[in-house]
Amino acid sequence: MTAVLRAWIRLVRRDVRLGLSAGSDAAAALVFFIVTTALFPLGIGPEANLLARIAAGVLWVAALLANLLSMERLFATDYEDGTLDLLVLSPLPLELVALAKVAAHWLITGLPLLLIAPLMGALLGLPGPAFGTLGLALVLGTPSLSLLGGIGAALVLGTRRGGVLLALLILPLFVPVLIFAVSAIDAAAAGLTVRPHLLLLASVLALTVTCGPIACAAALRQAVR
Amino acid sequence: MLAGERLACLRSHRLIFAELSFRVGRGEVLVLTGRNGSGKSSLIRMMAGLLPPFDGRLLRDGRPVQEDPGGHRADLAYVGHLDGIKLPLTVAANLSFWAAADHHGAAGAGVEKALATWGLAPLAQMPARYLSAGQRRRLALARLLVSCRRLWLLDEPTVALDAASVDTLGQLVQQHRADGGAAVVATHAALPISDCTELSLDGFAAPMEDTIG
User: Fold this and answer.
1) Pick from A158, A150, A59: which is nearest to A106 by CA?
2) Would you call A13 an interface residue with chain B, using a CB distance cutoff of 8 Å?
């Protein structure tokens, strides 16, 4: 068991290193998130009340699209350079390989986004009491986005114009995460209890973390045929 | 060690080969030949378990491979057309990762020896990005030495290799079979390996009009 865990961590570490050395994908997602959220005050105008009301929605839609943007290349490089064949044949179960790749992806794209989100929240005038919930919702929600996106990224391997297809496939699956996360932040801003919303978000994560890698691995096996 | 019975391969509604049977035992080398598109790569991927047979079955030590896919994977080393090399990582890091992955972390000392065998030792700390095509090929083949599997599946291993490296490959295959291993090699070039079984896939090609679906 520890050998499997060690092999898993080794794969995560290698992917984080590769992701950071490639640089562009991780940075692109973060810059996209910052720029899109910064565009809203410019587009809507400096109406503090309106911005504060839509802040949660804006942050989450931007986070979701930023995630989608970086998702397309998740398995594509491994598929193109033959690494995927070798990973399928490696002793580590393919479900865990998929989970490792998604975890590495989250570490280099989801985590920076999580750290910068309070700043963007402040920019949009998100009400003070909602900041804690924003953080919690991102901690619970963004891994789900990465896991769901991983399924899509595996399914579109080898297709042309995979990016468009990926958006069509995955955006509908992001909807529950979006709804629960935004309603949690809105509830916090209104001074209501946030627990049920966060629990729903956590249950989505429990579902995606268990079923996501299985679906992802099945799609990858199909892709290497 | 590995045998196929009446295998058929279907790719995109076209039957590539059918009724193909083969056997590789310990210490044997099976050389796959045939024109382009005759299904050599597909057959190798089928042997590796990446591509399920459309018909027929694959037997490992007399038992169907599907009964124990994990055991089958732990038995084989596959070197395909693509080298599976990460360009930003160093030569040594590329090889160490697979050495550790294939052994669940047990290996490590074999890496230097494998690099030396393939003449890559001076380049060990260089990012793989700067390797030539032939050097990348050698790095991919060096994986065979660190993964220590009994069945080698090599798809066009000599592509981009210089004459000296082809000789090295031949010696390694001979050594591998002497150690009780087996190898399946798809190739157009003649390999410096004596006494190997040849299987021409041209004999199993399905007629062009024989499409399905």
Assistant:
1) A150
2) no
Residue B115's CB is within 10 A of a number of other CB atoms, namely 23
CA-to-CA distance for B68 and A39, rounded, in angstroms?
55
Name the CA dihedral angle for A133, A135, A136, A142, rounded to a multiple of 10 degrees. Answer: 130
Test the B interface: residue of A6, A20, A89 with most B CBs within 10 Å = A89
Residues A51 and B138: their CA atoms lie apart, in Å, by 59
Chain B residues with CB under 8 Å of A85 CB are 48, 50, 78, 80, 82, 84
- Cβ contact B89–A6 (<8 Å): no
- Nearest CB partner across the interface for B102, out of A6, A22, A90: A90
Q: What is the dihedral of CA A42, A45, A48, A52, to 10 degrees?
A: -60
CA distance A173 to chain B (A): 29
**Crossing angle (nearest 10°) for helices A111-123 and A24-44:** 20
What is d(CA B157, CA B31) in angstroms, rounded to the nearest whole number? 12
Q: Which of A138, A128, A186, A181 is nearest to A33 (CA)?
A: A138
Q: Is the pLDDT of residue B108 over 80?
A: no
CB contact under 8 A, B73 and A82: no
Give the residues across from B9 on adjacent strands. Answer: B17
The Cα B140–Cα B158 span in angstroms is 11
Task: Please indicate if any CB of chain A lies within 8 Å of the CB of B183.
Answer: no
pLDDT digits (tens, 9 = 90+) for A160-183: 777 888 989 999 999 999 999 999
Terminus-to-terminus CA distance in chain B, angstroms?
Answer: 34
Contacts of B90 in chain A (CB under 8 A): none
The model's pLDDT over A76-134, given as tens digits with 9 standing for 90+, comes to 999 999 999 999 999 899 999 999 999 999 999 999 999 999 999 999 989 888 999 99
Q: Which of A107, A116, A33, A97 is nearest to A68 (CA)?
A: A33
Q: How far is CA A124 from CA A38, A109, B182, in A?
A: 8, 22, 66
Interface confidence (ipTM) of the complex = 0.91
Q: CA A126, CA B57: separation in Å to the nearest integer? A: 62
Strands B55-60 and B29-33: unpaired
Chain B residue numbers with beta carbons less than 8 Å from the beta carbon of A92 are 101
pLDDT at position A22: 73
